[in-house]
Amino acid sequence: MLKGGIGDLMKQAQKMQTAMQEAQEAAAAREVTGEAGAGLVQITMSGRHDVRRVAIDDSVLSEEKSVLEDLLAAAVNDAIRKVEAANRDAMAEVAGGMELPPGMKLPF
C-alpha cells in the first residue's frame, strides 16, 4: 500500500514538473507592455524580462533629458511588475491551489 502511494506521489510530481516547464515556456513567449506618461513611453518586455521594443512619443523628445530618463525608468518598472504578476498567476495555476509560504517561488 505504501509503495503504491509513493508511486502515485512521484507521478503527480512528474506531472507538475511538466506543467511548470510548459508554463515557463509560455511565460517566455508572453509579452507585456509597461508604460509611463499616459502612454508616451512604452516598453514591451518578454516573460523573461527581455526588452523587445521601446516606443517614445515624439512630443517627449522636446523635454529635458531627465524627464525622458524618468519616463523610461517608470515604463521599465511598470513592465517588470506586469511580467512578475503574469508569471506569478501562471505558476499559481500550475500549483493548483497548493499553499506556499509568502515569498516562496516556483520552481524551487
UniProtKB/TrEMBL annotation:
GO cellular component: a single term: bacterial nucleoid
A Pfam match: YbaB_DNA_bd
Predominant localisation class: cytoplasm
GO molecular function annotations of the record: DNA binding
Subcellular location: Cytoplasm, Nucleoid
Keyword terms, alphabetized: Cytoplasm, DNA-binding
Quaternary structure and partners: Homodimer.
Protein family membership: Belongs to the YbaB/EbfC family.
Function description: Binds to DNA and alters its conformation. May be involved in regulation of gene expression, nucleoid organization and DNA protection.
PANTHER family per the UniProt record, alphabetical: NUCLEOID-ASSOCIATED PROTEIN YBAB
Name the record gives this protein: Nucleoid-associated protein HRUBRA_01653
Taxonomic source organism: Pseudohaliea rubra DSM 19751
